[in-house]
Amino acid sequence: MKFLCLGYLDHGKMDARPKDEIEMIMQECPPHLNNFYESGQVIVDAGLGAESKCLRRENGKIRVMDGPFIETKELIGSAFLIEARDMEEAIRIASLHPTVQVGTGEQFGWGIEIRPIHYFESRDYPKG
Questions:
Q1: Which of 45, 90, 114, 119 has its CA 20 to 30 A from that of 59?
Q2: pLDDT tens digits, 40-54
């Protein structure tokens, strides 16, 4: 089973800190990333840029809107896909990620949301 994991952060708190301080904190991540990747169950791991767009169909046309769209101080900063037997194993694997391993990330609200992926098969939809 595959799980989508979203890494969150409080961008206001991070943006308020000097760049060199943030760079020092980020230097703590590689050893944790190595452990995370060595699990052999990471399919994709990516950091996300702050810019986002939302597409919606309105009145028969596609509308493009600026984001982000979550109504919170938190911002999605990363996303990764993992393979796991169940949610318990997904939690174990995700817990290796620097988002929850680097202690200094706590002050910036670093956290991970884990969601199982359910596939839609095109044969289930009517054609036309």
A1: 119
A2: 999 999 998 878 888
